[in-house]
Amino acid sequence: MLLEELTMPQVEAALAAGCRTVYIPFGALEEHGPHLPLSTDTIQAYQVGKRAAELVPLFVAPPIPYGNCRSTNCHPGTVSISTTTLRCLLKDLVRSFYRQGMRNVVVLTGHAGGAHRLALQDAGEELLDELPELRIAVVTEYELAKDEGRGIIETPGDAHAGEIETSRIMHSHPHLVQGTAPEEYPTFPTGILVRDKRRYWPGGVWGDPDKATADKGARIEELVARKVVELVRLLEEGRYV
To answer: Which residues on adjacent β-strands are paired with residue 104?
Structure first.
């Protein structure tokens, strides 16, 4: 159930029928090479939620289109918010859903930046202490795709705008794919923080887009959606507290 398309009585009826789980997709407005849209992370997170909602009763919240983007903040098009803003946003959203009667929350982020992920996890931990009946999972879409698609993806170390993400957008939004891009990997100096990040990652690709296909994208999306369904069921069973 896509929340933005429901009416008030429909939400009320779904809650009365026992639906207590909400999926919150986080994305980013971030460069994805010369061939993929800035909304790539947001698209992937939202698509997975919509697919999962076809398999299990689930409220799917509208996607959050901004994230904390550090390694790409010198690339044109990337818009980054602070980790403080990100944490506060997730906490406010979960509190509001909780007041509505939703007790199980799956937070899936299509953006896999380290600080971004940690901010969401920190917010989730704080919410556990605050809301006694809350059950929450915070997962990264990329990590699920990498793990579940291990037998599909050919590129070792593929991570950003490469084989996985290009395949995903070729499947779900082919009209947004602008050709392909050369294989590329960042060359950041180990342990040293740099201001001019684009100097060490000029094309904004981490992997090999040439190995992407729409069929791979469809298969990976299905695998990730089924993994989300597993998380939903685990939360609803109350096995982990």
So the answer is: 21, 135
